[in-house]
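Quarterly update from the structural biology core.
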Amino acid sequence: MKVTQRAQRLFRLQQVIFYLLLIAAVVLLAKLSVDYNRQFDWTANARHTLSDTSLQVLSSLEKPVQVDIFVSPEYQYRVAVTDLIQRYQRHSDKLEVSYIDPNFAPDRVRQMSIQQQGEMVISRGEQSQHVLDLSEQSLTNALITVSRQQQQWLVFIEGHGERSLFEQHDFSLSTWAGQLQSQGFKLHSQNLVKTPELPDNTAALVIASPTEEWLPGEIALIQDYLAQGGNLLWLADPEQTVSLSPLAEQLGIAFVPGTVMDPSSSMLGLDDPRFVLISDYANHPIGVAIKSVTLMADALAIETSKTEQQTDWQYLKLLRSQPDAWVESTAISQSNLPQQRYDAGEDMPGPLALAQILTRPHPDTDRQQRIAIVGDSDFISNSHIGTVANLELSMALANWLAEDDKLIEIPVKTSIGTQLELDKSQSIIIGFGFLLVIPLILLAFGLGIWWRRRRR
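Predicted structure, tokenized:
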């Protein structure tokens, strides 16, 4: 078949158009790859994707945050550092990232007290935080810390048998204290007898279940603090001192004598009805922030007893027990615990309020005075704070009292997918597999190879 000149010209034109379209497609794809980034994380626990916590923090950033990364180009984990920070940069343009080679900036290393390669310094204004490990939790906590508009001081009253803030035993609050510090709170313990003046920068006062008597002067100090518009977190227990009654009267609340009993705690495998299961939360930022049930132990029910002089307070039942719970009016011991039943006419039936929120306009400013009274302090102790959503509740309370409303709905970042749980049969199968099956298979292969070589 003879090819005409016209056919040759059309063929060449077709080739030119093809190459032009190919170049245009390559340029377009390159442009799309620069402007749009889509990633898919198929790992079981989405370990390469930022959590909802981090995304909420990034979306709440209103001012630029400086991120100084001290890492050398030859550092073996530089790629991991870059990958981590780029995950954050994809969701916010408020991060101003600078890579600094510590070998060529010794003065700055000394000035900022850099300890290791890959260390990050997160700063905004006068606030700064050092991130020493390459984890999303540490970086997000640092962003939360510098995002706080001011230094938040929580003052814990001590000297009356309150739960310890820094001791490590089961009933202390050291785990909660560590979480508070990681999210930018400053903690201070104060004995009102030794130091009768509260710091001016107190964001909230914390009374953590005192068991010993308060002096009248100490009560008057707290009452004056509240009259001036101070915020308060009061954690109560059935064995707390009765010397705080004037404080309860000032706030218009009353603790119901007795211990709250809840048979529905058996749903969590608990045989002790003194554990109270909470799933009913008020329509409040604190309640919205809690994504699961919470658990309390040896709790008190709280009622309102406001008078005409207390009409400026707004009361809200934050936590309510199950309807079948009740307040046991008789003394409870381990021996008579299984026989405890609701007695009509003697015990108070549920549902019961285990936490009350009090708010009113601040007497001197346009902000809101905030009080939270919880009829339990065990939920925040080392032995129970990791149970169900107790940690979420404790952090939401702290953020609300510190008036950091934007951070109330940010849950605590926890590691997931880091433990392998096996039942007994699975453990036996894996154990026999490694001890017998795999060695026998290797032995069989070895014998087979030996036998083939021998027959040659």
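The first strand starts at residue 65 and ends at 70.
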